[in-house]
Specification:
heterodimer; B: 4-stranded antiparallel sheet
């Protein structure tokens, strides 16, 4: 409700910032589908985000197709890349899976970084004209708000579906999952494709908010940042990563005003997190609520 | 129903199973016994696909299943429990069993239906028959060891197996729990017609329920036969007594 009215009373920059938080948050929640729910070390999630963004940018600038087709294509293309990278990686487990994914993802990044005639190389593509209705700050904000809400509802649904439960089972005990007839690799691959598609949607939202794309969108440091968001917010909770994204984006913006070494502050925050809130921020609050609730029940008895 | 011939498996040159033979008819309760390290668990892991055999045949309903992935073998109708508790320890008891039931009902890849409304009745029935109903909402990792072993069986039953393989179902159980498990196995065999293959160290239990017994030593099948035949077989006595001599 508050989010719906935000553009009414917030200054333009803060509306833009909220939109960016939603976008990054959606990206983090999509990563958490595989990381938290599926227990897979998805180390290079940003690739699928970048691919979504570039798909929209390229459809708008290089083709005569309607921009909306770009938005429809973004999750599809991201899912396809997910499928290909997934097919190669999923046969490995744990860390090896993550390492191979980083190298394949970096390959995609390198191509985008170098292919000047098609992707604009390291400059990226700027001044992308999105449809009028979403080109204003408010329009972009509402676009991202609506899209994020829909995606969150769908993802929540997937988490609570039979597939979501089976994915959790695979995370907890792959050996036993196979023994009860679950095709573990296929579950993991499906999870990756779904997660990649949502990252692609987040990527398309980024284009609307920023009006430009650049190779940093799929650089591995961004992947690391999203993982930190998941850990920070609480990777065993559904909305935790969203909160983590908000904290990181705000921290970068606020601290970034005073010093360019904002990552130092981030490092400090991370250290505190690992020492005091290993469950993540949201995880911690939920836990203490539960404990508080449990205590109340006991007292009643 | 199940026929194992000349099965072999070695780990780094050590022959864990060198010549295993086993025959299971539909509706039977078959026990596999043998001293520690005889290769019983390896044999079970070979049958259900956790390990790949180096040689030999495993026929299930006339079809060679050696080398298939565990999930495919499970779908053919072989369910199993594990010797060391192997459950989804962060999920509730109910979810543990439901995962198996959903997989059996081919619902694993349903993305948009609600898990809460899926396979509830069947899962409830299984929990009821094993006396776990009251613990359905507990996180399975917090159960007592005995209850976790029962949950092991409940998960295996979630796949509606025709052949149920139990790897030391009563290991670490109290005498009462062991008795309950024995009753349960009899019930499954008699009332649901499930064929059971199990291994066990508790000889009293073995001789009170098994139709036939297969004895393994050093990775080889010594004999498979009726309990009385096995009891009086000199090679079996030697295997156990010899083992006892070495132990003392």
């Amino acid at each position: 409700m508050l989010l719906l009215l935000a553009p009414r009373f917030l200054p333009r920059f803060q509306v833009y910032l909220t939109g960016l938080i939603l976008t990054t948050g959606l990206l983090a929640v999509s990563l958490n589908l595989v990381l938290g729910l599926g227990g897979m070390y998805q180390f290079h999630h940003a690739v699928f985000y970048g691919i979504g963004a570039y798909t929209v940018a390229l459809v708008i600038t290089k083709t005569v197709l309607s921009p909306w087709i770009g938005f429809l294509l973004a999750p599809v293309v991201s899912a396809l890349f997910s499928l290909v990278i997934g097919l190669i990686c999923v046969r490995l487990s744990k860390l090896y899976f993550g390492m191979l994914q980083i190298s394949l993802g970096s390959l995609v990044w390198a191509v985008v970084f170098r292919w000047y005639s098609f992707t604009g190389g390291d400059d990226g593509i700027h001044g992308i004209s999105v449809p009028d209705i979403i080109s204003s700050t408010d329009g972009a904000y509402y676009f991202s708000l609506i899209l994020t809400s829909i995606c969150l509802i769908v993802m929540q649904r997937i988490v609570n579906s039979p597939f979501g439960r089976s994915f959790q089972a695979v995370r907890d005990n792959p050996v036993r999952s196979e023994a009860v007839g679950i095709n573990v690799k296929r579950v993991q691959l499906t999870g990756m494709v779904i997660s990649g598609a949502f990252a692609g949607i987040a990527g398309s939202m980024f284009v609307v908010i920023e009006g430009s794309v650049f190779p940093e969108l799929m650089f591995w440091t961004l992947s690391l940042e999203i993982i930190i968001m998941c850990l920070l917010g609480g990777w065993f909770t559904f909305l935790g990563p969203m909160l983590g994204a908000a904290i990181i984006v705000l921290l970068r913006t606020v601290v970034g005003i005073y010093t360019e070494y904002w990552t130092m502050v981030l490092g400090f925050v991370l250290m505190l997190l690992i020492l005091f809130l290993p469950q993540g921020v949201l995880g911690y609050f939920l836990e203490s609520c539960k404990r508080g609730g449990g205590k109340a029940v006991r007292e009643e008895k | 129903m199940l026929l194992v011939e000349n099965l072999q498996k070695s780990f780094d040159g050590f022959m864990a199973v060198s010549d295993a033979r086993l025959e299971v008819e539909k509706g039977e309760v078959i026990a596999v016994i043998g001293p520690n390290g005889a290769g019983k668990t390896t044999l079970f892991n070979l049958i259900t696909g956790q390990l790949k055999a180096d040689g030999g045949k495993i026929l299930f309903k006339g079809e060679n299943i050696a080398g298939l992935s565990p999930y495919l073998i499970c779908r053919k109708g072989i369910g199993r429990s594990f010797q060391v508790v192997n459950i989804f320890s962060r999920l509730t008891v109910f979810e543990n069993v439901r995962v198996a039931v959903m997989s059996c009902n081919k619902r694993t890849f349903s993305l948009f239906s609600k898990a809460k409304e899926t396979s509830v009745y069947e899962t409830g029935e299984i929990l009821k028959s094993l006396g776990l109903t009251e613990k359905a909402d507990r996180i399975s990792g917090s159960l007592s060891h005995g209850d976790q072993k029962v949950l092991e069986m409940a998960i295996a039953l979630g796949n509606r197996p025709e052949l149920l393989i139990l790897d030391e179902p009563t290991a670490g159980m109290s005498p009462e729990e062991t008795r309950d498990t024995l009753e349960l196995m009899k019930l499954l065999s008699r009332e649901r017609g499930i064929t059971i293959l199990f291994c066990e160290h508790d000889m009293e239990l073995v001789f009170s329920i098994a139709n036939r017994i297969m004895v393994m030593q050093h990775g080889r099948t010594i004999i498979q036969g009726e309990p009385d035949v096995v009891r009086n077989d000199t090679r079996v006595q030697e295997a156990y007594l010899g083992e006892a001599d070495e132990g003392s």
